[in-house]
Amino acid sequence: MARRIVKCALLLWAVSLSSQAQPRWRSYTATDKSFTVDVPWKPGYTRRSVNGQVGGVLNEGPIPGVTAIDVYNLSMYTDEENTSFMIYVYQTADRDTEKAFDEAKNNAKKGKPSSKPTLTSETAVQVNGLSGREFIYHKEKVVSRALLVFADHRIYAVEFYTEDKKGLDRGPVNRVFNSFQPKP
Questions:
Q1: Edge-first strand listing for the sheet containing 181-182
Q2: How far apart are CA 11 and CA 8, in angstroms?
Q3: Which of 7, 69, 93, 166 has the greatest count of CB atoms below 10 A from its CB?
Q4: How far is residue 53's CA from residue 109's CA, in Å, rounded to a whole number?
Q5: Left, alpha or beta for 167 (phi > 0: left; psi -120 to 50: alpha)?
Q6: Is the pLDDT of residue 39 over 60?
């Protein structure tokens, strides 16, 4: 009888440990309410802007003329070296962000060959009524997946990259990409 009680207690303890280890997914709404996404916990958030900088633009982002970047670190796969999962919201001076992106991409292609990643696939997508592109690319051991969505004065970017042999096709990665909903 005592053995059964001990076995039951051990079983309950093991079940409680395994349920604690599993993250609880929830819908997260961005600080400025510009998008929602399913995540296992609240992302880290930082904002970088041009306030106080000479020239009024950041020299970062998918197009020239970025005035601010909201960065959401999803902090998934922190146990894997060289793995990152981020969402960026680029604020731009340009209203036609898709046209500006295409021009910047074409200009980059005209430049010298570099050590930039090799594009494996590019697919046109629609996300919540907005046009965008999904990219798969690689560079040496790193494989990456990126979703860019174009909106008025904004470009949303969901980016995952890893050197881990598990690669890109993982349930949690797909869930984040599939649940991402920017506001038009």
A1: 26-29, 35-39, 181-182
A2: 5
A3: 69
A4: 29
A5: left
A6: yes
E strand or H helix that includes residue 21: helix 2-21
- Tell me the CB-side half-sphere exposure of residue 13, using CA atoms within 13 A: 6
Three-state secondary-structure class, residue 43:
coil
Mean pLDDT of 87-91: 93
Q: Which domains does the chain have, with CATH numbers?
A: 24-182 (3.40.1000.10)
Say how many C-beta atoms besides its own lie within 10 A of residue 17's C-beta: 9
Tokens of 13: 């303890």
Which residue type occupies 145? R
pLDDT at 8 over 50: no
> Which amino acid appears at position 127 of this protein?
V
Output DSSP code: residue 5: H
Is the Cβ–Cβ distance between 95 and 115 less than 8 Å?
A: no
